[in-house]
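Ticket #4471: complex job returned nothing on first submit. Input attached below:
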Amino acid sequence: MSIEAVDTRARGLRPRRVVEHAGAVASLRRLDWLLLAALVGVVAYGLWAIDGITMRDAGGSSLSRQALYAVAGALLFLGALAVDPDTYRRLWRPIYFGTLGIMLLVLVAGAATRGSKRWIDVGVFTFQPSEFGKVLFVLALAGLLAERRTSIGSLATPLKTIAFALFPILLVFVQPDFGSALVYMAALAAVLFVAGVRWSHLAALTVVAVVVALAVLWFLPAAGVNVLKPYQTQRLTGFTHPDNDPRGATYNVRQSIIAVGAGGLRGRGVTGATQTGLDYLPEHSTDFAFASLAEERGFTGASILLLLYLLIAWRALKIVAGARDLYSAIVAGGIAFMFMFQVFVNSAMAMGAAPITGIPLPFVSVGGSSLITNFLAIGILQAIHMRRVGRRRA
Amino acid sequence: MAETARRSGRFLPGDPRVAEPYRLTPQLALRVAVLGFLALALFAVLFLRLWALQILSGQRYLAQANDNRVRTLRLEAPRGPILDADGRVLVRNVPGTRVELWPSDLPKTWPAQRAELRKLAYVTGVPVKEIVADLAKHGDDPVTPVVVQRGIKRQQIYYLLEHQDAFPGVRLAESFLRQYPYQSLAAQVLGYVGQISPEDYKRLKKKGYEASDSIGQSGIERTYDAYLRGKDGKAQLTVDSRGRPKTTAATTQVPWTPGDALRLTINIKLQRAAERALTYGINLAHSNPLEGGYADGGAIVALDPNDGAVLAMASNPTYKPSVWVGRKDPQKLAPLLNPRVAEKDNHPALNRATQVGYPPGSTFKPVTALAAMQEHLLTPFTQLLCSPTYTAYGQPFNNWTPDIDQWIDLRAALAMSCDTFFYQLGDDFYRLPPNRGHPLQAWANRFGFGETTGLDIGGEIAGVMPTPEWRCKTFGGPPCKGYVDRIWKPGYSIQLAIGQGDLLVTPLQMARFYALVANGGKLVTPHLAADVEQPGAPHQPRRVLRRFGAQPPLSVGVDPTALRYVQLGLEEATHSPIGTSSGVFGNFPVDIAGKTGSAEKFVHVHGLTNPIKLNQSWWCGYGPFDAPKIVVCAVIENGGHGGSAAAPAALQVFEQYFGKQANVVQKASD
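Support reply: We reran it on our side without changes. The output follows.
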């Protein structure tokens, strides 16, 4: 066994079955410990942060509920380790259509909250398919791209991928969950990028995307066609001039900026954070969790979180580079970029540097679906890492 | 890793049992590097932005966050009390609770807002329409609340406190309400307090008044608002984003300063006596239906003849100023605001002592007498015929009684109020050459007629002092010649001499003139406010902050001898057997001098289409004769002869003032 392993290492080859049958302990030793530490750190930090953020809410602290979700997420994380990512590659079609099916189900039978249908009530808890869909979406698109890896140079491949991606994006968009739709688009861009679509094609697609965005936000409304609801347009463009209409469309971003700024270096503490505690900052446990954290824990506290995120992003990119095959690389790349995108948009939005979109802050925002999905995503990254090419410690 | 893969490829052919080796292509490595740089760039943006907000501008945002949660409230200062000359409280404050609406904290959507306002209307008893109207009037000023109701009851307070969550934007605040222990006493003089009008607000903004302020609307309350209002305090309250207070008590930043007390020259007892005397005079007039059946109002003014201090100022009909306190009942306010109802109730809001001009009738005769002597048309000893009729310009002018036909001097003319005596003087004035001007009117002007007296409460009218120029102007001129109604006819001068015709004077003007007669020819400025004091318990020593000294009386340059004979004439009028009010004052222990007046006026009375000629009953005089301390002027509208209604009413005021009773043995006449 050990000789076999040495041999494999020497040639850079890897007998398939050997890894699959390798002992669980051995596999765990191949975990990215730094990533694991970052995960534990960010989860613990997030729980501590959310305890402070929600402490003065009407329903009391969300800590216990969030901790329960974290336990569920950890179990899913362990489960993800056991699954060879290759399984996802082989099953990408069922994954894709299953995702579509659940999203359709949401539209048909979902529970409506504040005018949007995002949740499915399964008795014990409600879950939000668009959150889980983020990972499944990456797994499915990566499968499609991996299958067509030989023809990655032709424009047809990215176009077909985009065509496949558009269905779930549209389904999320009409819920309406504009924030998630944006995340999906970011993931789509990431998988195309990592899969090796030509630079020229990427450039062309970027131009098309920019034109479409401009059309949706400015040209079409001017022509009388509204793709987005007016409030969505206002939020997307409102951050560029937050002092217009402080009681209306830009109220949230104004309050959020005040909350962040008021935090100062050391933060105002749980009791002193008036923006959060007196409810001036809306949605402070979900969309504006970063602002609330920054208010309560200050520059120090917010920086610690951002550094933890940066650590995760760094490890994720390293996993992309060390992936065993293209499929794993695409999946890891998609997950890594999606993660970065969510972190960036959420915290930049809280600081008035990005449009207001309903994107949760990974591992911090209250919400089971989001937390568990993030655990799953890191789990898949670890699973890829465990099965990476290269030196295996005996 | 890439190295390993490449090397292994050289060593061995492909093994069918093993998977195709995956190589980290340079292309992928580049792209991962791009992603890595992107990640660094994004995080750099986040850190920079975080730094900029929290470290560089942290203080500014901290201030904004604090502004957010802190609401500055105004603590209403209690208004100062109004005291009478002896320090008795005429108007005071009682604490109450007021309901405020903070428009910016109301629900944003109209249906939710309407639902809340409906509930609020139900609880406070204020119609929704009025609340909505008040809100609309308020505009979009976010820092001043709309006052919905003042002085709500305890149950309402408890209900609102218990259901605070259902009433976002509604706040209860401490407030003070005006209270009138003597009810309607001196209502028109005191005036009332109400919400500042937009015009007043615009005018007074610079002096620190706010749009939600209360301000004196008339009378004393208005003139001395600056002293009475006090200084509002400030408190801060922590509120959440829906405006709900987070702590029960607001922290006081600046406590309020109560308004100062204002002491009046009015004496409550005398004021009450004057108001009762008015009612008595009106009832007396009614008891003689042929003469005074239509009596329905009047005024009494009592002045200190030496400095012009108003001792009493009564007006009838009157009202209770408490109708202006708290939420107003439109039905109770209708007599004050609705012209039609006011007409029916004979205008209770009017201060008849200063705001209504009456023809003065015979009370004007001393003016004519003084003017005639000053112009050398008459000496105190000149005898003129007091005939039943004086005929001039082919027109007869009748005396009030046909029973007298004898030669008399000025004293007797004043005593028996002989009209024909004064007709001759009026005619003499008319016949003066044009270069002499109009001396009768000029003297009347110097005695204060035809202009406001300068009383310290507003709303005073000047009355009418008819001159040829006035006549021409009033009837559409110039030009004056060739128009019958614009020409000054001799009859006007003749009528003016006995206080008839177009002449209109206010009771206060007349009282001021009789003060001049009493004090030896000095014109006083009537005033109501004595001083501003620090409010305190009644037995505490007075702490005067500002004294309103009486303006020095102005000598009008009237000849002392002439004045003396007028005084004697007035004394005869109340004491000699031929005096017109001897029956009233003849056996009063204090020597009173005074003149009756029965001025004819065409009056529209209820129930009749055409106006009828009714007598306005006057009496003006002073006492004690040798050292005058009080001047009283009484008018009973449509009360008949002066001696039958006004004189007995005036006597009651003297009785109260001197604390002595008189027996009316015989009815007076004029």
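Chain B touches chain A through 54 residues (CB under 8 Å). Closing as resolved unless it happens again.
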